[in-house]
Amino acid sequence: MLTYVFSDDRDPLYEQIYNFIKTDIMNGTLKPGEKLPSKRTFAEHNGISTITVQSAYDQLISEGYVQSVPRKGYFVADIVVPHGMRHVTEKARKEKNEADAEENFINLSDSSPDETFFPFTVWAKLLRSNLSMRQPDLMKTPPTGGVEELREAIASHLGSFRGMDVDKDSIVVGAGTEYLYGLITQLLGRGMVYGIENPGYMKLPRIYKSMGVSYRYIDMDEMGISPDGLDKAGADIAHISPNHHFPTGITMPVTRRLEVLDWVTGGNRYVIEDDYDSEFRANGKPVPTMYSMDAGQNVIYMNTFSRSLSSTIRISYMVLPEKLMERFRKELSFYSSTVSTFEQYTLAEFISRGYFEKHINRMRLHYLRSRKAALSALAKSDLAGKYRIKENDTGLHFLLELKTKKSDEDIKERLKEWGIKIRSLSDYYHDKAKAPGHFFLINYSALKESIIDKICNCLAESIKD
Amino acid sequence: MLTYVFSDDRDPLYEQIYNFIKTDIMNGTLKPGEKLPSKRTFAEHNGISTITVQSAYDQLISEGYVQSVPRKGYFVADIVVPHGMRHVTEKARKEKNEADAEENFINLSDSSPDETFFPFTVWAKLLRSNLSMRQPDLMKTPPTGGVEELREAIASHLGSFRGMDVDKDSIVVGAGTEYLYGLITQLLGRGMVYGIENPGYMKLPRIYKSMGVSYRYIDMDEMGISPDGLDKAGADIAHISPNHHFPTGITMPVTRRLEVLDWVTGGNRYVIEDDYDSEFRANGKPVPTMYSMDAGQNVIYMNTFSRSLSSTIRISYMVLPEKLMERFRKELSFYSSTVSTFEQYTLAEFISRGYFEKHINRMRLHYLRSRKAALSALAKSDLAGKYRIKENDTGLHFLLELKTKKSDEDIKERLKEWGIKIRSLSDYYHDKAKAPGHFFLINYSALKESIIDKICNCLAESIKD
């Protein structure tokens, strides 16, 4: 019988089991064809839950170490260990396994798009044609803000899709939003105080801190942040996502928008409007941007293709008000563009030839379906009657409120044992004590329908005593 | 007869002529087939030099507006002005023309590689195979430092090419050196004082200034900067290019290297070793890096593929000492990698399959040939006896010392009129008054042999009274 000693360190139980069995298979302790104990026997023998064993076995099966034979059980697969396999130290192996296991987690808080939908065929076609037909263009150093053709395509996309009247020469393309934040801090000067939403996107304070600029948390009410909050914090910049706040899903109503725009015209102040997933609004028309509403030209608009195409394509952009664009040209145009021309031209054609719109429409339908599947699975699961959904009709996630007395940490800990990473709303609060409990983020963007039931069962299990 | 009024603004004369004639052709003032005045007549009539007219005519010919018929003269080409040609305002037209003209300058101080040599066929082949065979890899978010395969390829390249013993996990890949400088300032903390070489790379102080960190100019002697200079300036970081200083070409000798390494081990200090064009050393073996010499692990090594492949491919990297790498993992690994996986995997294979080495060897031979061609053209030109070459056997440029009483500014101004951009050594000094005069940078990397003679003649002309 397989007996293993589990440690209390940060590895989830299922991952420890997975590693133990995998190691035993690789070093020959478990022989090809050997039968593994049933899930129930293994679980009882080791004093753990069946669901944990199931997760470990599933992982081993999916990686080909173990075969499941219906009505017979689980067997070690016939694995040929490569002769020249590198010697790996115990430490390196452990680290590698940890990383692998983390990768194999079902991550309910991840906000990447579903990348199985990436339009490889079209992308390859456009790249190929550029590589053979546009060599001189590809070799020409573009201005800091990016190649003209891409900026034109973006301006036209923003016009038709967001109703925005944008001059291509106000657009700055860069290698990811984080990089653009860096440019903004250089552009606005280091003396500014950045107001960021609380709760909000967790990376933001880390970025501002790392860049050595001052930032303050501004508490949200049910309409978003308020000028009052900004004033109290002494903020000069309001860094917000008014069209779809992360993670609450709040859309800032027009009254509040006008208040914030009134605040911003009061001096050397700016709004950074992060419109990161406006493409995926499920129902109705997208909300007009604050950039469009802003007569005084104090709104910096930002968006990214890492969200709408793939997180591994690093292309984001910002639209600067004219006065900032002038300053940008004067002070920052010595920088090289950070995105390769190969990808800039490919993306430009991808947009201008209509592929981007098609892709967005396809993804929107897909996300809508995933969302419905997730909601209906929840309704039919053991969790029925023990939860509420906080509605919002855009983006790639919703908030699930669980009716339980268990702490958020307890629930997260149990789910982690089963290979599920989840985040509570409190994780996005600067001051967790102020956060409402029992809200969890369910990102359905890359959720395979086949595992939704498993997740629902685990969620139901996690609130049991 | 064509009579034009030239303005004193920043446009060079040849460009003004080019624009006047082009505009007259486009709006029909000059008809297809019409004969233009000879260069000499045009020059005398307008009170300018023949060489200036020649430059303007050459440009018009190369763009197809004008045809040169041997022994007959210059004729307006048969141009069909597109019916739907966009209305452009006078201002936009002027700006566009300025930009176009700047692009058409012969730029002797540009340091881009010769991009006609970019290996499009191999690159396209590798990209295509990745796009069809490695889709899951392309969609997987890489760690901040870049995809493992690329870091492995770089480590192995540094081993065989630079004799460096580098762990792939000490490498951070990023979208250009400028971006990596930003990461370094975040990593080392904002309280550090950066010592930069004087003379040196002109972008560096702009970058540090823009990032809001302190920097000091450290005067070079014939061996480079010294610990004494660093101490006097109160510098914590020595940002240097010891293997091939830009623009002087100095290689820091081993005695001075040891002194700087002794200085750097004295406290919380670091050397940033910028090895930007070590691949192109023309003769002999590359100098060993300070990173390799450094027992105390205080050297950050940097290099870029923008120089060795194409300036439009934004991939650079740095190798961090272990203690900095640990800090990087702890404090900065929340950042997303700034280079798209598509290009990271393509470059990884480009290196690991030996294409990069082949490309470098090919470029090195090409640059060696360009250098010889430039030196021999100078020797045969009217400039013979009126110049000296400051030798150095690496990189893509040399320094030309002109025997003249004219000021550097006068010479640059004259050359600019003929469509040639050149920089004097003094341009790279913080305090120009301290700079030795009459040294000019000749970058031969992208110099077509066909125009070398023209350049030599212009140089000879420029020092005439």
Walk me through the topology.
2 copies of one chain form a homodimer.
Chain A: H1 13-26, E1 35-36, H2 39-46, H3 50-62, E2 66-69, E3 73-76, H4 90-104, E4 106-107, H5 120-133, H6 135-139, H7 148-162, E5 171-174, H8 177-188, E6 193-198, H9 203-210, E7 214-219, H10 227-233, E8 237-240, H11 254-264, E9 270-274, H12 290-293, E10 299-304, H13 305-308, E11 316-319, H14 322-331, H15 341-352, H16 355-380, E12 387-390, E13 397-402, H17 408-417, E14 420-421, E15 423-424, E16 439-443, H18 449-462
Parallel strand pairs in A: 4-14, 6-7, 6-8, 8-9, 9-10
Antiparallel strand pairs in A: 1-3, 2-3, 5-11, 10-11, 12-13, 13-16, 15-16
Helix pairs in contact in A: 1-3, 2-3, 5-15, 7-15, 16-18
Which strand order spans the largest sheet of chain A, edge to edge or round the barrel?
5-11-10-9-8-6-7
> What Rg of chain A do the Cα atoms give?
25 Å
- Shape category of chain A: globular
Subunit organisation of the chains: homodimer
**Poorly predicted segments of chain A:** 82-92
Total number of strands of chain A: 16
Largest interface: A-B, 49 and 49 residues
As a percent range, the share of strand residues of chain A is 5-15%
Category from helices, strands and their pairing of chain A: alpha/beta
Helix content of chain A: 40-55%
- Mean residue pLDDT of chain A: 87
Termini of chain A, distance in Å? 30 Å
Work out the helix count of chain A.
18
Question: What about the largest sheet of chain A?
Answer: 7 strands, mixed
Protein model, in words:
Two copies of one chain form a homodimer. Chain A has 465 residues and is an alpha/beta fold. Chain A is built from 18 helices and 16 strands. Chain A has a seven-stranded mixed β-sheet with strand order 5-11-10-9-8-6-7, sandwiched between helices. Chain A has a four-stranded antiparallel β-sheet with strand order 12-13-16-15, covered by helices on one side. The model of chain A is unreliable at 82-92 (pLDDT under 50).
